[in-house]
Design goal:
Blueprint lengths: L1 H11 L3 H11 L12 E4 L30 E9 L4 H4 L34 H12 L1 E8 L1 H9 L9 E6 L3 E6 L9 H15 L4 E6 L9 E5 L9 E3 L6 E6 L10 H12 L7 E5 L8 H7 L1 E3 L22 H11 L7 H10 L6 H7 L4 E3 L4 E3 L1 H14 L4 H13 L5 H14 L5 H17 L4 H14 L10 H11 L1 H6 L28 E7 L6 E5 L11 E5 L6 E4 L8 E2 L4 E3 L5 E5 L3 E8 L7 E5 L2 E5 L9 E5 L1 E2 L5 E3 L4 E4 L2 E8 L13 E8 L2 E5 L15 E5 L3 E4 L5 H8 L19 H14 L5 E2 L3 H9 L58 E7 L8 E2 L10 E4 L15 E4 L8 E2 L3 E2 L2
Parallel strand pairs: 2-25, 5-6, 5-9, 9-10, 10-11, 31-35, 34-38
Antiparallel strand pairs: 1-22, 2-21, 3-4, 6-7, 7-8, 12-13, 14-15, 14-16, 15-19, 17-18, 17-20, 20-21, 22-23, 23-24, 24-26, 27-28, 28-29, 29-32, 30-31, 32-39, 33-39, 34-36, 36-37
Length: 916
């Protein structure tokens, strides 16, 4: 493969080791290298081999090489010069150095990131009876237990002593173990409320509240510290409490974590408490408890939930709350996605106002894989936020839910820093058109101006710009506020921009060239040249900056880029893929995709293509991509690929008389008519020929085809040579131009097919036509060529499908095929090309007139054949295609007929093929 030789040539430019490894992989042996700049691929049947290059690297003939796929070549479909506005790209925003835009200490409003805590899940009065019964210890009173005495008497039991009445009392000592993992942060204030109430009820000295050091939870000795933690508190070693100390656990027992480590630590912890005799009670904010029944009997897990009816006595079997519907949960994340910061107080407030459900939802949201936790709260993760933004705009824009959302956010964050207010307003404006655009724009312009002019607090301002930038919706680069986003990006990443450091993947709609103004004015027009080279036989490419070394492999295309702004690329699929930066030396494998490369000044579209089926050869050299066309009148023409300018699609520069349309390659033959009484016009007669590519097909018909004949034995036929076939039957105009007479029965229109001609008449016509054009070599098609072209890649009875109508084919519509409907019977021929063409652009292959073939009629073989030839002699010549007079089934692709070559009729004509 010539492209594999190019890979070796490319490796030779690196070092000997790389060259040897590559040669070993590809099966080459080391020999003197003769470099050819001409890479070429051709069909085995190409008629012109004068331009084929010699092999530059001989292959290793010690083993039979495996067959390889044909080479693919790169081509540039489009090349567009981008017209950039100087104001947009090179002029710095006017306000950056304007002192009036600067934020001052006096003008900047104060604010905080300490927001109102979540409202309590429920009143403590609801919980106290439950805690009393779950943690209390029975103590005897001085009163007699009369109900028990009554039961004894009823059962005739002897009464040796009067029993005293027992009742639960609060424990004398209580230890509260608090789970302060970040996964439970929404409930920390609820835990603190419970601890405060119990300390108030039982006394501060009787209640100890602790949190474990996470890594030592479940171990002995374990490290603990008082919680809530005071400034002077220290860590100390935890020991299992005394037998009379009740234990209250405030934890989900690791259920909320996606990883099992937390659950395993709690299980180890309970091993140490297994023999503890005092009551143990667990309040869990999760949606379920551990499902181990023996464990539940030990720790008595019950839900800490604001919609769950608190019982008077603990449930020792565990619990499982109903799960929310998946779509509802996705709606919740969708509504939260525009918010840059969601603290735990805001989350509970939104749950209440928008009626999302009970309190276990807070844990599910807080710990969802699509949510990112920060020190101040949560926000939807950047990796999925685009999906949720799109869903928000489709479902919630200007909805009652979104109105409540933004109102609730505004009320909850009313004491926050001005920057957070403006960021939320900006996100609101991007997601939904709002009336705060001017205020938002003015504030962020002032922030950028202050960052530019400030020197003492430069780092803090840069951090603020970075934080705001990270919280913006991804759609901001395509919104009316995109200029502010670019200014913030410039503030936060000035040094990186000047150094040419960019992220690998860019946000959708982000255009780096809009930040050219960050550079010094003298650097605005600096340029470096990049090249795209093909490095593999399947269209693999490398994109790199041009070097001064001698180019062994010519580049496919060259383009300019700014030294600090590398080109970006994106593939055509998926359509919504974000652009990415190209690193010099980066390689790509296009497969069947299209890559678009863009710089500040140009946009290129490239793809890798196989040799077009209508071309016999394809090659790429310093002059570009070229193909050789099938020989026409003894000459092999070439066509070059012309890159589309100004965004227009590229095309092959096909020389006359060739052309390409939706059906493929064609060539036109122009004939000057002989001026006779039958034809006094000097207008040129045009006969179009279509190139039919080589291929394999099933000739004949299957046994299941309705109304087939016995002589249509189906067999495989391979045609190894392409051929030029007339796209229509020979017209009366063409016949008259050559023969100076018209034997046709129907003569209403010169574009009607000539008919009433014998096979011998057709041979006389061909002999005269070849005399007019000695390099043309016209003939009648073989029967295999005719059926191959008629089927046009189909296997149905007709090239149009299982059945036909008179609107498609000229036949006797009163006699339909295989249960079809009756239709028009014209009772005459119709002008050629007046009915639809088959998939290969050939007209009236079915019906209108029977067409002579060159073959003598003979039986089909049963085995596969290649390039079948006509018998040397016979009785009948082959007719194909049916006619206007025939029944529908006669016009099938497989239908064969035969007649003596001297017979003529008003339904028999022919079409031409160009012989090799």
């Amino acid at each position: 493969m010539v492209w594999e030789r190019l890979v070796l040539i490319h490796a030779a430019g690196e070092n000997d080791e790389a060259l040897q490894k590559m040669a070993q992989v590809l099966g080459y042996e080391t020999k003197p290298l003769q470099i050819s700049s001409f890479q070429h691929e051709s069909d085995s049947d190409s008629s012109d081999n004068t331009h084929k290059p010699e092999s530059s690297l001989p292959i290793n003939t010690t083993s039979e090489p495996a067959p390889r796929p044909s080479a693919r070549f790169l081509r540039v479909n489009k090349r567009e010069q981008l017209t950039q506005s100087n104001d947009l790209n090179t002029n710095q925003p006017h306000y950056l150095h304007d002192p009036s835009y600067r934020l001052t200490a006096e003008s900047a409003p104060k604010g905080t990131f300490q927001f109102a805590p979540p409202r309590p899940l429920f009143a403590m009065s609801r919980l106290l009876p439950f805690l009393h019964n779950g943690l209390g210890q029975p103590q005897k009173t001085g009163k007699i237990d009369y109900p028990r005495v009554t039961r004894w008497l009823a059962n005739a039991k002897p009464i040796r002593r009067l029993p005293n009445l027992s009742r639960n009392r609060w424990p004398q000592r209580l230890q509260i173990i608090v789970d302060t993992r970040a996964a439970l942060e929404p409930y920390w204030s609820d835990f603190a409320d419970i601890i405060a109430q119990l300390k108030k009820l039982l006394g501060t000295e009787a209640v100890t509240s602790l949190r474990f050091e996470e890594d030592t939870l479940g171990k002995l000795p374990a490290q603990v510290i008082a919680w809530p933690t005071q400034e002077n508190d220290d860590w100390f070693t935890w020991r299992v409490p005394a037998a009379d100390v009740a234990i209250l656990i405030l934890s989900d027992l690791g259920i909320s974590d996606s990883y099992p480590e937390a659950r395993i630590r709690w299980q180890r912890m309970f091993r140490h408490l297994h023999t503890h005799s005092a009551p143990i009670l667990t309040l869990s904010p999760a949606d379920q408890s551990p499902q181990n029944l023996s464990l539940c009997r030990l720790i008595n897990p019950n839900p800490l939930n604001d919609t769950y009816r608190v019982p008077r006595h603990p449930n020792r079997r565990g619990f499982r709350l109903p799960q929310p519907a998946a779509e509802k949960f996705e709606d919740i994340l969708t509504l939260l996605s525009p918010l840059p910061l969601i603290d735990k107080g805001l989350l509970r407030r939104l749950r209440d106002q928008l009626k999302w459900g009970s309190s276990e939802l807070e844990s599910q949201i807080w710990n969802h894989p699509d949510v990112h936790r920060t020190s101040l709260g949560i926000r939807v993760h950047d990796s999925v936020i685009k999906k949720y933004h799109r869903r928000y705009q489709q479902k919630f824009t200007h909805s009652p839910e979104s109105a409540k959302l933004w109102q609730c956010v505004q009320e909850h964050h009313k004491e926050a820093f001005e920057g957070l207010h403006r960021l939320e307003a900006l996100n609101h404006c991007v997601m939904e058109v709002s009336d705060q655009t001017n205020d938002i724009r003015h504030y962020f312009q002032r922030l950028c101006a202050t960052t530019t002019q400030e020197t003492t607090q430069k780092n803090a301002l840069l951090m603020q710009c970075q934080t705001i930038l990270n919280c913006l919706p991804t759609d901001v680069w395509r919104s009316s506020m995109d200029d502010l986003a670019y200014d913030l990006y410039a503030m936060a990443h000035q040094e990186d921009i000047r150094a040419g450091r960019w992220p690998d993947h860019l946000e959708p709609g982000f255009d780096p060239s809009r930040l050219l103004w960050v550079l010094d004015e003298q650097k605005h027009n600096e340029r470096v040249q990049w090249q795209v080279k093909q490095i593999g036989s399947r269209g693999e490419l490398i994109c790199q900056q041009r070097t001064q070394n001698t180019e062994v492999v010519p580049p496919v295309v060259q383009f300019d880029a700014h030294p600090a702004f590398p080109p970006t690329y994106r593939f055509s699929s998926p359509a919504d893929q974000n652009p990415s930066m190209i690193r010099t030396g980066q390689t790509f494998n296009l497969n069947n995709d299209i890559i678009t490369i863009q710089t500040a000044w140009q946009r290129l579209e490239l793809e890798a293509i196989d040799k077009p089926d209508w071309a016999t050869d394809i090659w790429c050299n310093a002059e570009g991509l070229s193909v050789r066309l099938p020989a026409w009148r003894g000459v092999a023409h070439t066509a070059k690929w012309f890159t589309g300018e100004a965004g227009r699609a590229g095309s092959w520069l096909i020389p006359l008389p060739f052309g390409i349309d939706q059906y493929g390659l064609y060539a036109d033959l122009f004939i000057h008519p002989q001026i006779t009484e039958l034809s006094s016009s000097e207008e040129l007669i045009t006969q179009r020929f279509r190139w039919i590519t080589p291929g394999t097909f099933l000739m004949g018909s299957p046994d299941s085809e309705p109304e087939r004949s016995h002589n249509e034995t189906q067999h495989e036929v391979t045609l190894t040579n392409g051929f030029w076939l007339a796209d229509s039957a020979c017209t009366q105009a063409l016949w008259t131009a050559v023969m100076a007479e018209n034997p046709s029965h129907f003569q209403d229109d010169p574009n009607l097919p000539v008919e009433n001609v014998t096979w011998l008449d057709a041979q006389q016509f061909i002999e005269k036509l070849n005399a007019l054009f000695p390099d043309l070599y016209t003939n009648l098609p073989t029967e295999a060529q005719w059926e191959y072209a008629c089927r046009a890649g189909t296997q149905t009875p007709f090239s149009f499908g299982e059945n036909i109508t008179p609107e498609q084919v000229n036949y006797n519509g009163e006699r339909p095929y295989a249960g079809g409907e009756k239709g028009l019977y014209r009772e005459k021929t119709v002008p050629v090309k007046s009915l639809p063409a088959n998939p290969w652009g050939l007209y009236e292959m079915h019906g209108n007139v029977w067409e002579w073939c060159t073959d003598w009629h003979d039986k089909y073989p049963k085995q596969a054949v290649t390039n079948p030839l006509s018998p040397d002699e016979g009785t009948y010549r082959v007719l194909r295609g049916g006619c206007w007079y025939d029944l529908n089934w006669h016009t099938r692709s497989a239908r064969r007929a035969g007649i003596e070559p001297v017979k003529r009729n008003f339904y028999i004509g022919f079409r031409l093929v160009l012989a090799r």
